[in-house]
Acid protease
Amino acid sequence: MVVRHCQALLLGLLLLSGVGRSVQQDSLVLPLRRRDGGIIARGLLRNATLPLHGAVKDYGYFYATLHLGTPARQFAVIVDTGSTITYVPCASCGRNCGPHHKDAAFDPASSSSSAVIGCDSDKCICGRPPCGCSEKRECTYQRTYAEQSSSAGLLVSDQLQLRDGAVEVVFGCETKETGEIYNQEADGILGLGNSEVSLVNQLAGSGVIDDVFALCFGSVEGDGALMLGDVDAAEYDVALQYTALLSSLAHPHYYSVQLEALWVGGQQLPVKPERYEEGYGTVLDSGTTFTYLPSEAFQLFKEAVSAYALEHGLNSVKGPDPKEKSFAQFHDICFGGAPHAGHADQSKLEKVFPVFELQFADGVRLRTGPLNYLFMHTGEMGAYCLGVFDNGASGTLLGGISFRNILVQYDRRNRRVGFGAASCQEIGARQVTAATGFGLCTTTTWRPRQPLTASRRLVFAWVALAMVLATVGGLLLHTRSVWVPALSDLFLSMRYGISGRSRYGRQKDTTDELGLIRLEAGNGHAGDTLEPRANGRAGKPGASPYGSEWSVTDEGSPTNGRDVERDLGISGAASEPSFIATFAGSDRDAPSRASENKQ
């Protein structure tokens, strides 16, 4: 009783001194509040910054941990802006799903809030390619990626559990997977593409977040952050330059921008701007490991980098790929003799490799360093290889490697994309690691010690006075009939609205708890194919809605099998162009990259 009333006194004095207001003002995010039906109130995740852990050189991709169902089960899913659907293995998948997944499969029967989507439901939406329909009239989906891995299964709805509530989302429950999807450690894919089936679209549509998100991938050593909602980049000392986010009738789910020029070592490559817009144009895809340029631009880029490297004392070395015939197509371009610790200190690499700049529309010129186009050679110390490849006339694809230590904000609300140099590892480190359970994260704003202002001196004076009064009050409280009831009534209304201090690290900074999707890093590999039936939503054979370059044959297979998703047996279903869902392949144990198309 003594403690409670002393606390009431102290809190009341702090409120009067303005501490309550400063806590609210200094908070990085507002705490989430429950809405009717368990849905989070709009905008409460507006400033949520989520840590991304793991070293890129040790892992093949970044993944998020989702908590799905009631009770919640956790699933590790690859973060991919080039994919539109989120999916995890279904309990019924059995041996048709890979044995290396991190978590147990999702069992709709074990979740009290789960429901399988029927073919006639208005939730039977898959984007491109369209949904299919099983013999049991269950809504089905299918996806196949450029390296020929695939995922197929049922659509289900269930609760995405957050610390302060839950929201119903629709996602895929896999009944078969092949290739890299089969062999990877991560459970599935977190689709961030622009489609109504995308998890980001569902969260924004439900009012959980504003229609903005950002990704910040660390360099070779990894770490970074996923930012959900309208995060103020200035909080992280990041200055964003914005270029327009383009709309495409042929590829509406991709994040496309207008690339106007490339600069290597301060010299512009003599390529006409329209070359970058061939095929599907210029696409940003976090799920693709490397970057792909039109042939003309690639040849000039390769020559410029090679000339610069050789002039600065480097020598050409053989690539790390196996010598088997199936890998001969890659022809990695590698250079030896670079500083051994260059990956830890990019300034050393900049002495032997040129700076790389990308010029976008609206006057945006993004400066990047060597590690934004190089990956570490796995067989030779001090050797690096180009992580940029020839894409023929198919288009320009800017993969994860191009945005190491670049914060990329996808401001879909204002139809723009922001770019800014950032210390992504530090941004991730500023966030307290998520706790287990329902995705609780305590986000803390770290600040250096500040000199005491007059107002702060006043606060400390109030605190000192409160301590004196509390001590005196403790002596008087030998009887409950003294001034306790009156004091209790006086300060009762002052108990509320005080944000708690951080329980972590003793740093004394203000903190807020928020529901989150925790990000980490994982691995990647492969395996087979499902053949769901088509329903009336399936596309017609022949001319494809993606344009002439994506037209399909009478058998439903794309005529351009290089970047588009193949038909998995759904009769007449049009296939969607897509890309491998792996980020920045391991720099220390580099994948063979048979998983990506380099023709």
